[in-house]
Amino acid sequence: MSRSRSAPCLLLALLAAASAARAAQTVPPMPASMYSAPAPGTSTSRVAYNISAVYQNLLPADLESGGSAASDRFAFNAGLDWRPDAPFTVGVQLDYEWQGWNFEPGAAFGTFPPWDALERGSIALPLLVAISPEVVTEVSPFTEWAFMREAGSSNGFTYGATVSAFGIFSRRVRVGAGVKIHHQFFSTVTTPFLIVDWKINERLRVTDSQLAGMLGVGGLELRYAPAPRWELSVGGVQRQDRYRLATLGPGSGDLAESSGIPVYGRVSYGLGMWVRTDLYAGVVTAARLKRWDPDGIALVDEDVATVPMISVAVESNW
Fold first, then answer.
1. How far is the C-alpha of 262 from the C-alpha of 56, rounded, in Å?
2. Phi-psi region of 296 (alpha: psi -120 to 50; beta: other; left: phi over 0)
3. Where are the chain's structural domains?
4. How confident is the model over 236-277, as pLDDT tens digits?
5. Would you state the pLDDT for residue 31?
6. Which of 71, 91, 234, 277 could be 81's S-S partner, Cβ–Cβ 3.0 to 4.6 Å?
7. Which of 91, 78, 77 is nearest to 215 (CA)?
8. Helix (H) or strand (E) holding 246
9. What letter would DSSP give residue 106?
10. Which CATH class is domain 6-317?
């Protein structure tokens, strides 16, 4: 499979820019993973920005019917949140992702690689409302384009929304739940998730993770901050994607699907007041690769052996 050289170069440029912008500052070891619920009537108008970039590598893993698969993934996220009045926060989030796949021939997909370069872009418009000082709700509609380059973005359009709510039980405990509803071509996929932020003590915390969300949906982490600027964690997320394949030739309109549960350890270091770097290492379990026809009939459904995963990320919030 031929790989795009422009995507790695673009990512490196983004990482360098994000790091250099804040490198001389100090960083809190744990950026907040959720909004605080402002008391209605309090004047707290502000704008917050975030930017993240991730590289992930899945090493070659055996397929049940023979052969193997491996992938590289580059993801970029940018957004802003605006609080025009105390009970409300509105925002916009932009995501782009590129995946490059390598297949070794096997019985499942034959001698010709089923897909190679996959792309995904999305736009989300989150709205948070504090309906009381103790309860915060959120709805975030989104549109997405997920496609193999030969298919074109117009054939990869999907859409959905995330709906959630959490309660603030004390300064140390916030708990809630939500669901992501995503119409992906021939069916709608519903993924529930927890929202947790429990500060056990000054160094130990259980929380969902915004950045782990770039590795999947519904991530939970146990975090430990041994020293200023440093953070260690273990966690896991869910991951499931579908992409439109080529629209011409044999198998036109077919869909690729990859899924699994990344389980990882993370080491983070603060480069500046608003910048941190993350190094992930772990495995992807319960992994599967599928190929569907346009009507949702499974053509291939292949188990994938547990595969080692490494990932590096840079995140900036200000």
1. 11
2. left
3. 6-317
4. 988 899 999 987 766 788 999 999 999 999 999 998 878 999
5. 32
6. 91
7. 77
8. none
9. B
10. mainly beta
The CA-atom distances, in angstroms, between 156 and each of 6, 63, 99, 186, 245 are: 22, 26, 15, 12, 8
Strands (DSSP E) contained in the chain are 46-62, 68-85, 88-104, 117-124, 127-132, 135-148, 157-168, 173-184, 187-199, 204-208, 217-224, 230-244, 255-270, 275-292, 298-304, 307-317
**Over 50: is that where the pLDDT of 124 sits?**
yes
Six-digit token string for 210: 């915004």
Using a 10 angstrom Cβ sphere, with 0-12 exposed, 13-18 middle and 19 or more buried, the burial of residue 303 is middle
Q: Return the half-sphere exposure (C-beta side, CA atoms, 13 A cut-off) of residue 80.
A: 5
How far the first Cα of the chain sits from its last, in Å, is: 39
**Cβ 72 vs Cβ 3: under 8 Å:** yes
Amino acid at 214: M
| CA–CA distance, 9 with 210 (Å, rounded to integer) | 25
* Dist CA 69 CA 305 (whole Å): 10
**Span 273-290, average pLDDT:** 93
The structure tokens listed for 81 are: 């949140």
Q: What sign does the CA torsion over 206, 210, 212, 213 have? A: positive
Paired with 55 in beta bridges are 74, 312
Cα-based distances in Å from 94 to 57, 91, 97: 22, 10, 10
Q: Per the confidence metrics, is the pTM higher than 0.85?
A: no
Q: Which of helix, strand or coil describes residue 27? A: coil
Is residue 144 within 8 Å of residue 159, measured between CB atoms? yes
Where does the chain have alpha helices with state H? 6-22
* CA 228 – CA 269 distance, rounded (Å): 9
Distance of CA 305 to the CA centre of its chain: 22
Report helix, strand or coil for 178.
strand
